[in-house]
Design brief:
Among the domains are: 3-39, no CATH class; 68-96. Helix content is 67%, strand content 11%. It has helices at residues 3-8, 10-18, 39-65, 71-92; strands at residues 24-28, 31-36. The protein has a two-stranded antiparallel sheet.
Length: 96
């Protein structure tokens, strides 16, 4: 929706967004510049962003931990770790 149309229909748009009837992508000269979403949807988006930041922090720590290893070394270590876990699972599996 054009920014000028948003301005002229602001009150109505806010009511529709609040009721969950619409979300608005605001454009200026055809370029998306903002979005109007409900407060509930905004909170969900914030939670998703926070979770992504946590997930990427884990990935960054993993990269740092393995920065001195080649891809081949990492793959070999992963295969070894998987084999160890499978072996432990077989040993710890309760007998019938």
């Amino acid at each position: 929706m054009k920014a000028s149309d948003v301005r002229s229909n602001w009150s109505q748009l806010l009511n529709k967004v609040f009721r969950g009837e619409t979300e608005v992508l605001v454009e200026k000269s055809g370029i998306p510049i903002a979005a109007i979403v409900s407060a509930q949807d905004y909170q969900k988006l914030k939670q998703i962003k926070q979770q992504q930041e946590k997930d990427f922090a884990v990935i960054d720590r993993m990269r740092a931990a393995f920065k001195d290893q080649s891809s081949e070394q990492i793959q070999a270590n992963v295969k070894k770790a998987i084999a160890e876990v499978r072996r432990e699972n077989k040993l710890n599996k309760p007998s019938k």
